[in-house]
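My current task is to audit a protein record that another person submitted. I need someone to confirm that the token line plausibly describes how this chain folds. Take the sequence as given and treat only the tokens as open to question. This is what I was given:
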Amino acid sequence: MIADPDRMHRRNPVHKPLRIEVADPERAAHLIVASDQYMSALYPAESNHFESIEALRLSNVRFLVGYCADRIAACGAVRIMEDDGRYGEIKRVFVPESQRGNGFSTAIMDALESHLREIGVPIARLETGISQPEALGLYRKRGYTERAAFGKYCHDPLSVFMEKHL
């Protein structure tokens, strides 16, 4: 069931401009809280893999915010990892429901993947959930394929693990 019937009309929108900048995650704390609430409504606590604001400030993380008309409308991060080969783990990609359908998650993903290419990281990986068909569709459209759990993750029937060779 679609809670917002107009959302169907936003599937092929005229994309709004998004200005993307590296930022302290605290600037997007309201999106991080909203993301936590959204994920907590979909999955039990043991299936959520939240990154705190403090963890998103570590030196191996690049955190991005997207501004539309000078308001934060999207965020996302990539964490450089070397626990299972060298890769970038995509984290915290989130767009509030009122801004979805404008291409903002695609713009954030473009910027994160471009950063990985620039610094010579050959693979992007992510974990998402089975109850997020829009996210799964976005990642598949971008060339991500399913794989086994990676790094410190364990198999979880509610998780989908994906990667893309850049």
About this structure: The CA atoms of residues 61 and 157 lie 27 Å apart. The chain is about 25% helix and 30% strand.
